[in-house]
Amino acid sequence: MKQKTLFIILLTVILSAGAAWLVSDSVVKHRLSAVAPATGERTVRQNDTRRVISATGVASFSDAAETAVQTVVYVKVVKRAKASRPSSLFDMLFGFAEIPQEQVGLGSGVIIRPDGYIVTNNHVINGADQIEVTLENDRVYPATLVGTDPATDIALLKIDATDLPCIEMGDSDQLRLGDWVLAIGSPYDLRSTITAGIVSAKGRSLPNYDGQFRVESFIQTDAAVNPGNSGGALVNTAGELVGINTSIISLTGSYSGYSFAVPVNIVKKIADDFINYGSVQRAMLGVTMSEINAERAQKLGLLEVSGVYVEEVRRDGPADKAGIKAGDILTEINLNVVRNSAAVQEQMSKLRPGEQAVITVIRGGERKEIFVTL
């Protein structure tokens, strides 16, 4: 009898322990599933700091940064100017006033081909008498200017080198608001500096104070950019080039939260033109445009404030010959939506004279697709 009682007590203890283990295991799994991100991501802890690893295995920006930083170079520019007038009677008599005065400018650049082609900003090398490029491994090369395009603020350099690390080109059209991006350059002579931010806006244009022709459809980010970053890389989390850092908005001359980059799709076309044709091949549509605001959209019966209003069509120009008319609402170029004039400029800047483009317009409430030879 005692043995039977002892057996029942022992069996009860074993069953209770098993049930407790099953309950605790279920609770732990539930808690882990509650904090684990969806879409194939998993969570790990290192030194009590939780971090997310995506399905691709990327845990941070490190992979993108370490790859891209090898392709970003330091650009040193020397400008020589002569004194405009004698500084003393001695100088005037003996001609020492004509001694060149050197000015040194600093910037960044990005290697786009292994045979030494480097993209930078026009304003970095403008007026340069001597250009010197320092790679990430500290090797120094003299650089020659292949071409420069003030309208996009893009310039192409060439150094005599081979088998260089070159950046992978991304697609700036695929960037979305809120995407993470990294800015890489040499601000204040601090070489290979990497900062992070998000895409704050696309298709930005800036005030044009000199009235010269500009092609502007900037990517706006909040990645910290300062003097010396100009010409450097803006990359996505895959380490692909999506823009060339160009300018900031600041009351002090230093970063205030707003930085701007030329989209890589424009950069690629400009660089290809210089390499293949020796100059920029810029297509023209032959229209005068204006923005569509809420008031105009209401008058025109548009469902959304988007597209550009065709004010005037140049006689015998490409648009005129194709049948585009004043009063049309231009909404797409080659099926890419254009919401403002800057977006139209961006799409047109990727095309060359002689190429065809599909221009989508709204006329009288109807959508029309018109083939235009640029």
Strand order of the largest sheet: 3-4-5-8-7-6
Rg estimate, integer Å = 29 Å
Average pLDDT metric: 81
CATH fold description of the largest domain = Thrombin, subunit H
In DSSP terms (H or I, runs of 4 or more residues), the helix count works out at 8
Largest sheet: 6 strands, antiparallel, barrel
CATH class of the largest domain: Mainly Beta
First CA to last CA: what distance?
A: 103 Å
Overall 3D geometry?
globular
Q: Detail the poorly predicted runs.
A: 4-17, 19-55
Percent of residues in beta strands: 35-45%
Our count of domains comes out at 3
Number of strands: 20
Element pattern in H and E: HEEHEHEEHEEEEEEEEEHEHEHEEHEE
Q: What is the helix fraction of residues, given as a range?
A: 10-25%
CATH architecture identity of the largest domain: Beta Barrel
Counting helices, strands and paired strands, the structural category is alpha+beta
